[in-house]
Amino acid sequence: MNELNNKNSLVSHSKFLSLVLRHNPQRIGLTLDEAGWARTDELLACLQKSSHPMSLAQLQRVVAADSKQRYSFSEDGLRIRANQGHSIQVELGLSAQQPPDVLHHGTATRFLASILEQGLTRQNRHHVHLSDSLDVAATVGRRYGQLAMLVVDARRMHADGYVFYRSDNGVWLTDAVPPRYLKVQA
Ligand code: HQG
């Protein structure tokens, strides 16, 4: 099976992995442990009966080629999980870290009024997602429409006791960002 040489197919397989490792493992009869890990052999067996069957080599390719490094194997390769972005309850075990002074959050202009009133809240995910890269934040924001860029005063939030985590693929995570730490970037 060599259809995974095609970029679209890699993306489609990565999206399916996101679905089962972040949101709906039951969809293919998979179970995750409390830290979000699936056994690699179990995942492959479940995928075999799904719309996205993969060999181990193909799974490794999807993981390695993923544009945001969304998935990680355990060191021994026996387990695999999504690095962040879950909607189901998992405890990733990330430790708190000091954030950079400034972080970015790209969103759509139509969400701005509500965000400036309520702050950034985590919606369906576990955390609010922030980036140290303007480019990444812009790409994230454009997914939802016309881009609005928010600058987060992470230095002051941290000084005020807010806790930040960094996922294995470099996304900054926090529970919420109150409006007083936000500025719309012109
Ligand atoms: C907005 C992708 C109204 C928030 C990306 C965002 C990211 C509010 C949307 C990751 C609000 C939630 C996360 C409020 C927040 N009122 N709207 N009070 N607070 N919002 O997808 O940050 O491809 O859950 O601005 O790369 O866009 O999945 O969050 O527009 O890292 O790997 O509500 O998803 O990664 O949307 O993206 P999301 P996000 P993956």
What would you note in describing this structure?
The chain is α+β, with helices and mostly antiparallel strands and 186 residues long. The chain folds into two domains: 80 residues, Arc Repressor Mutant, subunit A (Orthogonal Bundle), CATH 1.10.10; 83 residues, ADP-ribosylation fold (Alpha-Beta Barrel), CATH 3.20.170.30. The protein is 31% helix and 18% strand. It is built from six helices and nine strands. A three-stranded antiparallel sheet has the order 1-3-2. Strands 4-6-9 form a three-stranded antiparallel sheet. Strand 2 and strand 3 form a beta hairpin. The radius of gyration is 18 Å and the shape is elongated. The relative contact order is 0.15. The model has no long low-confidence stretch (mean pLDDT 95). Ligand HQG binds next to strand 4 and helix 4. The site of ligand HQG has 18 residues, from strand 4 and helix 4.
Give a topology summary.
Elements: H1 7-23, E1 38-39, H2 40-48, H3 56-65, E2 71-73, E3 79-82, E4 102-108, H4 112-118, E5 128-130, H5 134-142, E6 147-153, H6 154-159, E7 165-166, E8 172-174, E9 182-184
Antiparallel strand pairs: 1-3, 2-3, 4-6, 5-8, 6-9, 7-8
Helix pairs in contact: 1-3
Offer a few descriptive terms.
18% strand; 186 residues; binds ligand HQG; alpha+beta; ADP-ribosylation fold; 31% helix; Arc Repressor Mutant, subunit A; 6 helices; 3-stranded antiparallel sheet
